[in-house]
Amino acid sequence: MYSTASGSSRRAKRGKLRLMCVDSICNLEQNHQENPPNKYEFADIKDSCRIEYNGESIEFSIKQLINIKYLGQGCFGSVILTQLEHRPDVIFACKRMTLEILENNDYSSQCDLRAMRDVGNDRHPHIVNFYAALIDLINGELVICMEALETSMDKFYSTLHSRIQPSSNLLDLFIRRLAKHIVLALDYLKSKNLIHRDVKPQNMLVARPVIFKLCDFGICETYNDSLSLVLHRSMNYFSPERFRGVYSYGIPSDMWALGMNLLEISQGYHPLASQPILSYLSHMNNGWQPDIPLTLNQHTRDLLSILLRHNVNERPRHYSDILSMPSMISVEENPSDDEINLVNCVLDALPSETSE
Ligand SMILES: Nc1ncnc2c1ncn2[C@@H]1O[C@H](COP(=O)(O)OP(=O)(O)O)[C@@H](O)[C@H]1O
Ligand SMILES: [Mg+2]
């Protein structure tokens, strides 16, 4: 069951929130003179909004959002499946992030919202759609309303391997379609001058029939930005050059992360997950090479191996280079019945979600 914040922490949030409300909604001109403008990333966000939802214009307030079930938890926010009051047909995944300034959450929520607005409004087929951002004055939270997908890839792949165990051919096709969808999403971000920087199974979403989308833009950066926020990032997907600190974060590092993800998802576990961080680091510094499952098709193995080239200069330079590889060209536009059945079976077999 989804559980709410404890009474005392909610009271504490309310105390800070009052100040936030004044800052974010009223007296903007006066506050702009007293504080730098970048303090007001949320200034235009209110506790109600009007959106376009399936071709209909809908107005609602934060009070009309009814929690249905818990969808997931990340470093910066919890995500809840939500329904609009008296409108069971209007469903969102609402990501709630505290407005309290804690470590880097301020940076993250601003970054998430900015990137979401930038990319989530375009209805790209492989980027989670954005609908609205609201301020929850009672709980002191920024609420991002987005389209709801079924689950994330971390939960999906563990059920895929533990309960379903597809044939090698079907698993191979699944991995190639996933790779194609995520590469299309990353390429689209690149066209917007953005790098995701946190490509991991928890940030890949799955929907029926066979659709994969990228979410979580909390540490997304503009391409030329030199800032390198590593806090809260999973080192499991850090490329070797990131550990050496010799290159600023760029597309090749996201490519490495994608390769590591595809390897993990295809075999059902991260290849170095059991290693302590120092030994992981030493593997990365000593030219670790992946053992790519022999059950995968040769073209798929080629894809994983080129993404996981230790030398950053040997990885593909552009996403278009990946999309023109045989493993990607061979992915048909529409998924086969076998792929559709596989995704349906896994989604139907997922354990029910409980809040953490
Ligand atoms: N649109 C969505 N539909 C379904 N589940 C989602 C959606 N967005 C996020 N989730 C779930 O919530 C988790 C946390 O969301 P995320 O945006 O990654 O937060 P964080 O920035 O804190 O990591 C995800 O790993 C996923 O399981
Ligand atoms: Mg996340």
TrEMBL record:
GO terms for molecular function: ATP binding; MAP kinase kinase activity; protein serine/threonine kinase activity. ATP binds at K95. Keywords: ATP-binding, Kinase, Nucleotide-binding, Serine/threonine-protein kinase, Transferase. It is an enzyme of class 2 (transferase). It comes from the Eukaryota. Its EC number is 2.7.12.2. The keyword Transferase applies. One of its GO terms (biological process) is stress-activated MAPK cascade. PROSITE patterns: PROTEIN_KINASE_ATP, PROTEIN_KINASE_DOM, PROTEIN_KINASE_ST. The keyword Oxidoreductase does not apply. It holds the Pfam family Pkinase. Residues 65-328 form the Protein kinase domain. Belongs to the protein kinase superfamily. STE Ser/Thr protein kinase family. MAP kinase kinase subfamily. PANTHER family: DUAL SPECIFICITY MITOGEN-ACTIVATED PROTEIN KINASE KINASE 5-RELATED (PTHR48013), DUAL SPECIFICITY MITOGEN-ACTIVATED PROTEIN KINASE KINASE SEK-1 (PTHR48013:SF28). This is mitogen-activated protein kinase kinase. It comes from Rotaria sordida.
